[in-house]
Structures are given as C-alpha cells and as structure tokens.
Amino acid sequence: MSAEQLPPGWSSATLGEVASWGSGGTPSRSNAALYGGSISWFKTGELGPRQIFKSEETITEEALKVSSAKLFPAGSVALAMYGATIGKVSILGVEAATNQACAVGIPKETITNTAYLYHYLRSQKEAFVEAGQGGAQPNISQTVVKSWPFPVAPLNEQKRIADKLDTVLTRVDA
Q1: CA–CA separation, 108 vs 117, rounded Å?
Q2: Is the dihedral of CA 118, 121, 122, 123 positive or negative?
Q3: What local confidence, expressed as pLDDT, does residue 105 receive?
Q4: What integer pLDDT is reported at residue 168 of this predicted model?
Q5: Which long-range contacts does 163-171 make (Cβ < 8 Å, 24+ apart)?
Q6: Going by C-beta distance under 8 Å and a sequence separation of 6 or more, which residues neighbour residue 95?
Q7: Where are the beta strands (DSSP E) in the chain?
Q8: 3-state secondary structure of 87
Q9: Which residues of the chain have pLDDT under 50?
Q10: Cα–Cα distance between 77 and 54 in angstroms, integer?
Q11: 87/141 Cα distance (integer angstroms)
Q12: Dihedrals φ, ψ of 132, to 5°?
C-alpha cells in the first residue's frame, strides 16, 4: 500500500523504523554444557502460533556468553527468514533467545505495538516467501526485513485493528 493510498492520519515507514531488529544464534552443538539451561531458545520450526512460551530446547547463561545467541524480551515478534519456514511469525511470550534463522523485532512503543506488528507480518507471509533468494532453501535477510514497508496507523487505531483481528481469527480457528 503506497503512501497516497493510506487512510488519513496514517503514514508509511519501514520495519526498521518501527522496531529494533536482531537475530539470534546457535551455540556450538559440540558443547553439551551450552544446552539444557533455563533460557528458552526458539527455532523457526516452532514459530506459527500467535504466542510461544515453551521452547523445544533451552540454553544456558554460558551459551549467551560464548555464542551469537542473545536474549529478546517477552513481547518481541519473531519472523522466520530461512527455507520452508519463511514468513512464519510468533510473539515471544517469554524472554527468550532464538537461532540465527529468526529476525526478532522489538516494537518501538511510540510507533507501533506488538499485536499490530504481529498481524501485519502475518499478512505479509506470501510476499516474504516471494522475496526469498536462493536455490533449494530460499532466504530473506535482515536487510530485506528492515527495509520492508509498514503502514503506520495511529496507535489507538492499531489497537482496534489488532483486537478485531484477534476476535475474528479466534472464531475462525474455532
């Protein structure tokens, strides 16, 4: 949706302007002491539910120190960037780390909120898949994610839109 097509009071931005983005990392699998700790560690295959709370694997504090894995706050939005999972998205329901195949956005609260960002990213799944580059396992990059267009509604309108989508999608799922 171009800026001239946006409703009055809306503006156009990029995902990089409305959230702080990062990605995680995978601690060395050859060091068993880095796994089985108290830190949730999500992989792209776990994304998809609106909110995720319990990861299949956990990592230790040491894993954060010796790898590129990093903690993201609860309320961050994780987006799959690689392969068959491109475009899958979930809200982190707990403070957690992710692998490097996840782009994780921390919404800038003066511009957008978690639920609106989640629903917008979810609506873009097909477009993210089409934007994937590469052979058998197409990928999108942090650069693609950060430059992706984002329609910024006024915050009260974002809340109304996200609440309505939550209500309607709950009924659809039922």
Answers
A1: 10
A2: positive
A3: 98
A4: 87
A5: 163/115, 165/115, 165/119, 166/50, 166/115
A6: 39, 40, 71, 72, 73, 74
A7: 11-14, 19-23, 35-42, 51-52, 57-59, 77-80, 89-92, 96-98, 102-107, 149-152
A8: coil
A9: none
A10: 15
A11: 12
A12: -60, 135
